[in-house]
């Protein structure tokens, strides 16, 4: 039986199962350019004007240092994020790329290479089939480096001399993510690692003869190794304990030892968190550099001159920067940084300075430079916030609420960031929006979000951002608590949060909304499925509505990665779990107003996930809004599209949460 016939039969069966009202309900469908809406009312001009300043905020992120001592950054001045250059503190931002689609994966050629330019990735309409391009800063010429077909290419990595470029690509068969190697002089590329699965290049040896690589299986499992570039031989490293998670992997300056991040056991003792480690195979020297930090190390970088290493530790959702002197591994003094996120970092070619991207809950991302000799911090970009008074923005507090199970005979607690409005509640109590992250291995962190600040400041809504079980950042045991058949345990955590809300005298438990994207969209639907009597409305963005249909239709290069997290739908027992927890198959239980938004080109969560849940929920006696963009994928990256979605979401909350 053909797939088209199966889909048709399923659609007919679903229609027959719906009440008569669902089959005859009027749908107000509007098509404007690339945007399609169903039952979304006209957005009031007054709301658009109020939102305007919040929507005209922007941020800047570091990509690297150019040969002339300037910083290459990513920022948006029109519709999409593009590459810009800044050559002095708070200097003019010179826009370099000008595309309708956003550019990403900016990678500057090493200073020692003599190549003056950078590599960037660009897809079409959010389909994530990014092609890598070389931008020559001297001639301003752009050349596509990859095949230009339906392949995903990412993770560009230069050798120190700039003669080789390694990257990950699905070009060989569309399913496996191989490592390819490109000769930058001839621009000829060839597959290097074709062992099957999802591979990434991590670091070239200083002499350019070896390449560190990693095979990623899941958030709990990865396999590092090394490739001899002359022979193509891949040697996997032994993994203590048989299975572990690995983060970054880089050669030490001598090219013999290596730094890496892992949660492998140490001396036979299990490691709960991913720590920064040093290993010299020749001497046998091994050192855990962050053994005194009971949190994950989220990233690190070694300076080209070999004198320093910088790393970021994720301490309860706050990113903290440390710089070590090499080879002593002793921390050096740093200037005081704002409490928030260090979202990127890059050493200058001479190793004297470290550029970082800083973001806080009340300020967008901006680029700062640390002079390592005198611990001086200098701001290089100042991003706009729409003329708003940032002193009125709200920073969250970290709270923990008890959930349904126990740890060491004590109630397990779930962390959440709580944004409480500064102004008194109009009716004595604040309505609440619960914002659930995706992943599911993601983590909610207190970053700047203008939409959240609008809800708080303009509408007087409290916002709670939980890190339910399965979130990263709290140890591998916590990360595994929602795997496979335990999927709905994370939904129970939302039920526990609803209980906590009801106990807070300043919060209105009768006016609670829930929102989320991707896996967070599934959490929205699942929460409404179980708690429609306690949740007044929900906004689902690019969310999963049925794990079986999702796994069948997601792009082939992602399927096994997602099976490792969610479970394998081909196993009857797991298929039965998916059927039991499916929002699609339990759509009749969703009896709160619902807004579903989707990108037509989404390769991760196909648009059919959105269409099928909208059709299934209609007729339950509550409004269902639907928004689809033909030129977007997994989220909305074009300003006009995102602005309209934000305005529609605010109007949805005003109509169905605040009244």
Automatic annotation (TrEMBL):
Annotated organism of origin: Luteimonas galliterrae
Q: Give every Peptidase S9 prolyl oligopeptidase catalytic domain span.
A: 451-657
Task: State the signal peptide span.
Answer: 1-22
Task: Indicate yes or no for the key word Transmembrane.
Answer: no
Please identify the protein, giving its name as recorded.
S9 family peptidase
Q: Which UniProt keywords apply?
A: Hydrolase, Protease, Serine protease, Signal
**Where on the tree of life does the source sit, at the highest rank?**
Bacteria
What InterPro entries does the annotation carry? 6-blade_b-propeller_TolB-like, AB_hydrolase_fold, Peptidase_S9_cat, Peptidase_S9A, WD40
